[in-house]
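Below is a typical protein record.
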Amino acid sequence: MPRSYQLEDNERAMRQALNLVRREDLRRGGEEDGHLDIAGVKEPLLFELKSGVQGEAFSTGRDTSAARLTQWSTRHWAFGAFEPGHPEPRGLWYGSPTMMREWLDRELKYIGPDLALAARVPDLIKANPALVEVLMRAAMEQEEGEQGPPYSYKQMKALMKAEWQAKPKLGLKSRYRERACNADSAKRNSALTYDIDGVAEAIGDRISYLMARGVTTNNRHVPWKYVIDNCVELDLRNPAASLRAAVGAGLAETRTERRVVPKRRRSAGTVAS
């Protein structure tokens, strides 16, 4: 059986064992692996579910961006250890946002140099008009007509696509019109034109977007030892109740701002079978 299907089966088994809910309208790769409603907590607690083989690291999947790592910083985690041929987890652990902070900080540090490049390169491009023209010519090789400057709306639309379009729901006006040289006189977007400064801003924005998408960690893992040392082992006789007890303790720890994570955590309280 392909590994992707095995992971989906493991995730389903974990959700069932922990009595977590996942919205049916979410496809694989959606915004949650499962969630838990807690009395007294306004919003559902969103969970990341990670499974692996007993004794081995837990994979987080491919191409994890800085935005996703930041998103994970508020998530609750459940780890499940499986053995080949056994559909039920052989071990389950709960990791609160506090328990996972050290690993997440380490992953963000890992891509720190890439983030620095992604932030600096667009500004360097914008400050070099000659380089802007070279890049624009390269980007417009497949476009017909004059290369510019001035540059046409058609050329800018080919470069920026939907990125500069108006987004009324977000209160954003059309950047295509805002950055045009002749926004006051052009009645139609097709008549808009752009000078080298407008093109420099567009290329900088586009490269920022592309580099931000490209700054990812590839197939990183949460080490087995990290989970054992930092997370709470759940009672397999009643993992759902054990999880809720661990979550309650974790929420209390967060409220009192106890940030020190001990090297070894005790298992969650024994639950009667």
Q: What stands out?
A: Residues 113-214 form one domain. The first helix runs from residue 3 to 18. Confidence is low (pLDDT under 50) at residues 1-5.
